[in-house]
Amino acid sequence: MPTSADCIGYSARIIFLAGLLFLAALAGACSNTGHYAATKEDGAGRPEDIIVYKSPFCLCCKEWMTHLQQNNFSVGSDNGLDTAAVKQRWGIPASMQGCHTGVWRNQYVFEGHVPARLIRKFLANPPKDSIGLSVPGMPKGSPGMYRGGEFEPYVVYQIQRDGEYRFYEKVTAPEAS
Q1: Choosing a second label site near 138 at 20 to 30 A (CA), which of 13, 32, 102, 114?
Q2: Closest among 35, 36, 43 to 75, alpha carbons compared
Q3: Rg of the chain on CA atoms, in Å
Q4: Rounded to 5 degrees, what are φ and ψ at 160?
């Protein structure tokens, strides 16, 4: 005869499996990883400048998108729980990864909390053999991470087509919105 401990263990396994199924369904519903949304359009029917691949639960990603919009970029998003496929597709080295990936017109990648002014600087004169810029991690004071309090200087890196990266610019003050 089963004991109460057996029933509790069985119930816990059922709840765990149901939770896994729920998360898998949520990931499928929130993800468009079958394509790369380079053809998304804004509300006026124009192609969006930057598609941000991010988790649907990330608040700092939304704040970075607001920073870009305030700097006259048209921005869309592709929400998914697994952004690794996008990072892999673009060849972003593990040490250069941030919490989200912005793709400009399916030509260049902006990984993490890259300031809009540096995106514009890069796009005005893209360095040879570069695929984009990166702010690895989530530095305090970067766009989307700055709340008007403490600021820590951080480095923006240029990502090369061969997977290497190099210094691009050091940010020493908070960016204007």
Answers
A1: 32
A2: 43
A3: 20
A4: -90, 155
Of 47, 96, 114, 117, residue with least CA distance to 76? 47
Compute CA distances 98 → 9, 85, 121, whole Å: 39, 14, 20
Question: Which pLDDT tens digits describe the chain residue by residue (177 residues)?
Answer: 555 444 444 444 444 444 433 333 333 333 333 334 444 554 544 568 999 999 888 889 899 999 999 999 999 999 988 889 999 999 999 999 998 999 999 999 999 999 999 999 999 999 999 999 999 999 988 999 988 888 999 999 999 999 999 999 999 999 876
Question: Of 166, 114, 28, nearest to 123 (Cα)?
Answer: 114
Is the pTM above the cut of 0.85?
Answer: no
Cα angle: 112, vertex 58, 169; to 5 degrees: 15
Q: CA angle, 62 as apex, 144 and 145 as ends, to 5°?
A: 15
How far is CA 151 from each of CA 107, 115, 135, rounded to the nearest angstrom? 31, 14, 15
